[in-house]
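From the methods appendix. Each design record in this collection lists the tokenized structure first, followed by the designed amino acid sequence. Records were kept in a plain field format so they could be parsed without special tools. The example shown here is representative of the layout used throughout.

RECORD:
FOLD TOKENS (268 positions):
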């Protein structure tokens, strides 16, 4: 589906699907969906629930029964944020959406800032909501999480040689062409690493990536699913890709050929 003239079911960038992955977000899901529909009434929503034991999926079904803009994808068991987004992207592309948005359920990403992301998408193919560019902020985040996020982004910039302030964040808007190009189904990682992988693939496929400042708030209700294994995975994978990338650059220089535009295929 192309981005035709705006009507009540589309924005200037076309039809938008906001994908919200959930695991045990019973106390957050209704609030985040309402805020999203108020902020961008023309957007549709896809909740991807991994069989939350706390009944989040049932609440989502009840909301979907009341409003055609809300859809629910039920998956059997907790399989991680990355796998939930892959299923959500598959669903959204098959349903013909022009723009696919990633957003957390816990209120850390403010739906009221979605219009700013969508507006920037008029000049880009992928827009990242960024905590670490001028104007970006974090509220009430434990110092340890802030240090981890800043450190992870610094490390990613150095290892991969990319200039982005916040490549680990999960509040973003993709034009469908990006997802059609980057083979996201092959991304096996979770959390931070999943986000870095997607943006790196987009850059290496030549898409325009823009960052817009966001205010990121710590979750008020429910528990974080962040874990040490997610951090270790990100560190390991980014190091591996970085080493491979540098090796490829060195090989190119030694052979005296111009740098290839393609991403090192071996890392997939
Ligand atoms: N479907 C699904 N959603 C998940 C999973 N893990 C985390 N989420 C959701 O992903 C979003 C971000 O997770 P969160 O726990 O807030 O991570 P944090 O912000 O890094 O502390 C929230 O909406 C979670 O409910 C998962 O395994 N499956
Ligand atoms: Mg969170």
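DESIGN:
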């Amino acid at each position: 589906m192309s981005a035709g003239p705006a009507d009540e079911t589309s924005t200037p960038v076309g039809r938008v699907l906001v994908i919200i992955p959930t695991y045990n977000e019973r106390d957050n899901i209704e609030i985040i969906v309402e805020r999203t529909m108020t902020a961008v009434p023309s957007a549709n929503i896809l909740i991807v629930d991994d069989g939350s034991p706390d009944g989040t999926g049932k609440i989502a079904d009840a909301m979907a029964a009341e409003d055609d803009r809300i859809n629910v994808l039920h998956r059997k068991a907790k399989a991680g944020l990355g796998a939930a987004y892959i299923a959500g992207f598959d669903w959204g592309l098959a349903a013909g959406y022009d723009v696919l948005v990633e957003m957390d359920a816990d209120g850390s990403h403010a739906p009221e800032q979605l219009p700013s992301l969508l507006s920037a998408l008029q000049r880009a193919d992928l827009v990242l909501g960024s905590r670490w560019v001028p104007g970006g902020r974090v509220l009430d985040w434990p110092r340890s999480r802030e240090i981890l996020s800043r450190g992870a982004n610094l490390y990613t910039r150095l290892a991969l040689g990319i200039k982005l302030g916040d490549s680990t964040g999960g509040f973003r808007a993709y034009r469908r062409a990006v997802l059609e190009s980057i083979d996201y189904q092959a991304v096996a990682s979770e959390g931070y690493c999943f986000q870095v992988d997607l943006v790196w693939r987009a850059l290496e496929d030549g898409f325009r990536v823009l960052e817009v400042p966001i205010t990121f708030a710590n979750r008020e209700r429910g528990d974080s699913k962040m874990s040490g294994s997610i951090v270790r995975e990100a560190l390991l994978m980014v190091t591996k890709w970085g080493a491979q990338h540098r090796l490829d650059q060195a090989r190119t220089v030694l052979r005296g050929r111009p740098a290839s535009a393609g991403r090192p295929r071996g890392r997939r």
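APPENDIX NOTE: The chain has a mean pLDDT of 91.
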